[in-house]
Amino acid sequence: MSFDTSPSRRIAILGVPIDDVSEDAALARVAAMIAEGGPHQVCTVNPEFVMAARTSSVFRRVLLAADLNTPDGYGLILEARRRGSPFRSRVTGVGLSERIAQEAARRGWSLFLLGAAPGVAEQAAAALQQRYAGLRIVGCYAGSPRPEDAPAIRAMVAAAGPDVLLVAYGHPQQELWIARN
User: Fold this and answer.
1) pLDDT tens track for 101-111
2) What does the alpha-carbon distance between residue 13 and residue 25 come to, in Å, rounded to a whole number?
3) Of 8, 76, 110, 117, which sits 20 to 30 A from 149 (CA to CA)?
C-alpha cells in the first residue's frame, strides 16, 4: 500500500493549527511517528475543540503542541473552504483509528485501547480483530481521565508496550490525558 506523503500545510482556525492532510497522509505521518519511537500526539480536531481552546489555555497549548491535528469536523472543512483554502479531506478520529488498525495488522504494530465505558474497548478490540486478521491488541481498559488514576494506567500501558495507544475519553479529557501522560 502506498501513502500520500506530500507535504502538508497548517491552516489556523481561531488560532488552532490544523494540518491539511488526507487520510493516507495522516496514516503515513503515524507510521513515521511509530518508526521514530517515543511519544507523539495526534488530535482529530472538530469545531468544539476550537471553541474549547478559546476558553482553556491548557487545552489550547495541547493542540498547539500536538504532532498532528487532523480536520475532523465538517464545520472546519466549511470554514477553510470559505477562506479559499480548502482542506484536502476530512480525517475523522473513527476513520483514522480504523485505518491505523488495518495498517497495524499489516505491519505488525500493536495497539492498546483505552477509555470509554467498561467493556467498550474490549468490544471494539474484538470487532477490529475480526476485521483485520493478525491485529495485535495488547491491552484494553476503560480507565478514567482523572489524574489520580493516571499512575496505574500508565503502568498498565507501559507493561503492555503498545506501538499505538488509542484513547477514547471524549474531548478535551482524552487530549489532556495524553499530553500529561
Assistant:
1) 999 999 999 99
2) 20
3) 110
